[in-house]
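From the pipeline queue, job 12 of 40. The input is one protein chain; the requested action is below.

Action: predict structure.
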Amino acid sequence: MRSIATFREEKTALRFWNFLQAEDIESSLEEDDSNHEWLIWVLDEEKIPQAIKSYEEFKVAPDDLKFNSIQKIEPKSKDINKANVNQISRFRNYNLRENWKKKERMPGLFSLSLIITSVAVFLLSGMGKNIEIVNKFLISEKLNGSLSEILNGEVWRIITPIFLHFSLWHILFNMFWVHDLGGQIEKRKGSGFLLLFVLVTSIISNLTQFKFGGPGFGGMSGVVYGLFGYVWIKCKFDPGDGLFIHQTTAVIMLGWFFLCFAIKDFGIANWAHAGGLVTGSAWGYISAVRWNRN
């Protein structure tokens, strides 16, 4: 879902919103009290280009007959007074986005699979204490820095450290953010996009941690910081995409990032955090610039 149009007057916004409804472009109309504006959100990502094209035409010729000929959608009951009509009309306009927000609280299929796999590995490895099993998930069991196992065909090791967790707090923290941030991205961009995103950020964050910290690490936090960086940057430079993270949460995440670097021997894969954060932020910024340029 993306915000594609902004209006100063409710009457004008309603005219264009009704036009979209007639064109079978499912959308919602929302009042932004802080800016005294009316925003139109389009639900179907595939219909966003069509909606934007129509909005550009509407701005040039809002009185064109193809827009004015659309009858305003109102409740059918004749027994409802004007106040109730306005209330129901607004409910119709807002209801779509409210329902969408509720759906976003549920993880997508791929987000859920990441959570289930991580929990399964956590339990199978005895909460990270079964060294024999843990070693099979490490990027390398050797300390010579050669990644010889991967070069000899065990290519899964470049990904599998993300499924290792060594305490209950560790896995709860990471799975919460996979659910929240990963679920948001998957709902917006689809499971295929999130799969590609996790693969890229996990490879970069794992290799970065291996390069600067050695092979003895595990956890989804590199991917989590990648998800955070992507959502955070998109919020700043492409807010119409609908991704959201509260500013206070962003400050806490960044504060934790720098605190972990400041405290020596904290036992945290700091370089995985850094690799993920840089990758996700760069991805989000490039995506925002491309959208805004178009």
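Job complete. The longest strand covers residues 2-7.
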